[in-house]
Amino acid sequence: MLSPARASGTRPSRSVATGHVLGVHVARALALLGMLAVHLGPTGSEGLLGRLYAIPHGRASLLFVLVAGIGVSLLARSPRADGRTIGATLLWRATILLPLGLLLQPLDHGVNVILAQYAVLFLVALPALLLPDRGLLTAAVTVGVLGPAAILWGQITRPSVFTRDAVLWGEPLGDLLHGLVLSGPYPLVTWTAPLLLGMWLGRQDLRAPAFVRRLVFVGGAFALAAVATSHLLVAVLGAPSGPTSLDRLVISAAHSQMPLWLVGGTAAAVAVLGASLWLAERAPLLVQPLVATGTLAFTIYVGHLIVLAVAGAAFVSDEVLPAAATMLGVTAVLSTGSILWTANVGRGPLERILRPPRWLTGAAQPSSRRSRIMATPSGTEPSRISSSAGTDARV
């Protein structure tokens, strides 16, 4: 069977499939920790410290989706992957994540759960894998332009519907689909853009120093330019007159779904990815805590929702310094626990369910006892990390 990677003109790369791209795990961990920081602390505080703390707001989740797109392409480039394996893996994960995300949303954690949107994005990724590289980039740019326009048009014409309310289990099917595609907190019409860009990045040589440097500098430049452009437009044209006005196009506020936020946030994600790849290449031992945390991202994400629902008052703070102190402690505990878990157990307790059963893929189970198998929630193929070296990771 022709695999999506071959159909798109991309040859499977054994160097990518066998791992060493630890920076992708690092980027996933940074996305996870950024989302935790947003959920545990303030995002609207004034002053320098408040603005620094709020940097991940609206950017960490875009990095998560960007990395998901990379994982999908790396899965397709695996030497052992074929069309059946790829399709079964993405469909299985969508089947798991959609109901789980909808069931977790009503808990009293105060978070817009992104898992259901992941499920829909994985379904979009299936046909997108057949696109050539240029097609992926063209589609990403097209979504980046038309998606915000569709959102703004909906906010102007149907403000009572385009409220960014979370989608919930038990809603009528039409309302559920409308929320996932258009009016929810992570509408497909805009969030497909970072996914497609990530899929394009996953087809590139993520270990090439020149390419990694371009990710850092080009991503950083676009991120800064988007914010600067927004401030300039607001200074010249004035602040938007309301939440349903056409002049909202000038803002870059987090999760506004407007073009300058989407471009700036996605560009920042690209820069963080480049920095993660650069650091992992030069200091692989130093980043091992983040690598381990990234491989357990699904378990940690779900776990933090439950903790917030049960004992959120003990962790959440409206002040920057207490929230930053909490995040330092949480990061230390998570990284230490992740290292111990992956070294002694392997896959996380929830990561195991993201690996499709053998009867669905037709793949043989690995027989080696010398390796630990880890599955990640962001669309990557199950990762194999050598128990002796701990650095041969397929992402």
What does this entry show, briefly?
With 395 residues, the chain is mainly α. It has helices at residues 4-7, 14-17, 22-40, 47-53, 60-76, 83-104, 115-128, 133-157, 173-183, 188-202, 209-237, 259-282, 288-295, 297-311, 320-344, 358-361; strands spanning 371-374, 383-386. The chain contains 16 helices and two strands.
Question: What can you see in these coordinates?
Answer:
With 395 residues, this protein is mainly alpha-helical. The chain has one domain (4-218, 282-386). Helix content is 62%, strand content 2%. The protein has helices at 4-7, 14-17, 22-40, 47-53, 60-76, 83-104, 115-128, 133-157, 173-183, 188-202, 209-237, 259-282, 288-295, 297-311, 320-344, 358-361; strands at residues 371-374, 383-386. Strands 1-2 form a two-stranded antiparallel ribbon. Strand 1 and strand 2 (383-386) form a beta hairpin. The chain is globular.
Main features:
395 residues, mainly alpha, two-stranded antiparallel sheet, 16 helices, globular, disordered N terminus, disordered C terminus
Largest sheet: 2 strands, antiparallel
Question: Rounded to an integer, what's the Rg over CA atoms?
Answer: 20 Å
The general outline is globular
Question: Cα distance, first to last residue?
Answer: 23 Å
The topology string of helices and strands comes to HHHHHHHHHHHHHHHHEE
How many E strands? 2
Number of helices: 16
Would you identify the regions where 5 or more consecutive residues have pLDDT less than 50? 1-19, 366-395
Please, what is the oligomeric state?
A: single chain
Strand neighbour order, sheet with most strands? 1-2
Helix content: 55-70%
